């Protein structure tokens, strides 16, 4: 990896933004959650949080968007801290599926009937069901306060419209959750678990928040500015490993070859990138490819990785 000159990185990020902005035209904004349809497919933004604390940003960085599947990394870290590895991996596996993120197929055919990993919807719903807290409100509050600490942004909340929109239309996620209840992967009230899951997906951030969260993972669980331990190193390590193997859904293998950065995407068009010991990256561009990853976002990350030698492999 090259030594990073902040002014050169700033200049190159602006060039890459310009180069990749038209790529969004090749994708489509997510429609299955109706509120996400309102996103503007020409938006593109990137923020980088270097571990020395510098901020490098370009594009539509003021746009706020929901975390969606990026939140799965956060709740995984929390569940590992709340219950420990043995308990988490009793309920979810460690293997990529090669299937779309909302597929029910392997859940039905695998024995035991538990989700293959915590980055697919079924796995993330199971992980959310493990979080400590006495009711849905307390669980949501715990997730929000963890995200605020990671991002160092006390203003972070969740988007009520996006939450409601998903809540009203999430029949597939409901099917996954009820299936898991039947097989005792999740316990308790299914609708309560789903309520927490929909709210975590609707947490609203901007690119800098995402870069800042990524930087904590890049810094082995420590706040890059203060050095405070926010999560144990082994928890950050497990999360980063899942980002490599499963973070970009069933495009994770191709992404590892072409980009080589641990990353997690969401259907809002956000991508969180983590370059170990170096930087956190937040990308936003809402037009998605057929696997649910941001078209312009993936290409921008590919160019950035090639120019700066960021691949971990
Ligand atoms: N891939 C995603 O970002 C999926 C998250 C979305 N809330 C869902 O459950 O369908």
UniProtKB/TrEMBL annotation:
Enzymatic class: hydrolase
Gene Ontology biological process terms in this record: glutamate biosynthetic process; L-glutamine catabolic process
Any Pfam family the entry gives: Glutaminase
Swiss-Prot/TrEMBL keywords: Acetylation, Hydrolase
This protein's record includes keyword Acetylation: yes
Keyword Acetylation recorded: yes
Catalytic activity as recorded in UniProt: L-glutamine + H2O = L-glutamate + NH4(+)
Chain positions recorded as substrate binding sites: 69, 121, 166, 173, 197, 249, 267
UniProt-listed Enzyme Commission number(s): 3.5.1.2
One Gene Ontology molecular-function label: glutaminase activity
Assembly with partners or alone: Homotetramer.
Family, as annotated: Belongs to the glutaminase family.
Protein name in the entry: Glutaminase
Organism of this sequence: Caldalkalibacillus thermarum (strain TA2.A1)
